[in-house]
Design goal:
Elements lengths: L10 H10 L19 H6 L2 H13 L2 E5 L4 H13 L4 E4 L7 H11 L6 E4 L2 E4 L1 H9 L2 H7 L6
Parallel strand pairs: 1-2
Antiparallel strand pairs: 1-3, 3-4
Helix pairs in contact: 4-6
């Protein structure tokens, strides 16, 4: 289904897409033909270094937690992982008033608006409450011991 430059995906459509599989998940991203050629390079390269840093950490570590100071949710995620004895890489980017522009690039990249952002075996699993659910139901251990995982 073609989408216009200002189209949005309803929660119901997003759930249906998730049921179909990751390659079918619609994301409302402005198409390149709707970006003036004079600024395309600026849009394409805006704050890519932070995204690359996170991608490199994800490629090198089984579990990556991306967070920020002051916010209690990244601290909760780290405590949950520590208590479960699961090693992780932590990347911290500023506080509420510092480095927010960098964090915005990560929000745009993942489509997730809050911190922490947690990746397990290269898969974005959400935030601290999502991590807690996966630990409690045993799915996190399964992810880390699945064939092909590096754990």
């Amino acid at each position: 289904m073609a989408r216009g430059p200002m189209s949005f995906v309803t929660p119901g459509a997003a759930r249906a897409a998730m049921a179909r599989g990751p390659s079918d998940m619609p994301r409302p991203i402005l198409s390149e033909d709707k970006i003036h050629p004079a600024i395309r390079d600026k849009v394409a390269t805006n704050r890519t270094s932070i995204v690359k840093e996170v991608q490199d950490a994800i490629a090198s570590n089984d579990v990556v937690v991306v967070g920020m100071r002051i916010n209690p949710a990244p601290r909760k995620a780290r405590k949950l992982l520590d208590a479960a004895g699961i090693p992780y890489k932590y990347l911290g980017y500023g506080s509420y008033f510092r480095q927010w522009r960098l964090r915005t690039a990560l929000k745009m990249w993942t489509g997730w608006q809050t911190f922490p952002m947690i990746f397990v075996e290269g898969v974005f699993i959400g935030g601290a409450s999502d991590l807690e659910k996966l630990i409690n139901n045993g799915e996190l251990k399964k992810m880390l011991t699945a064939p092909g995982s590096s754990a």
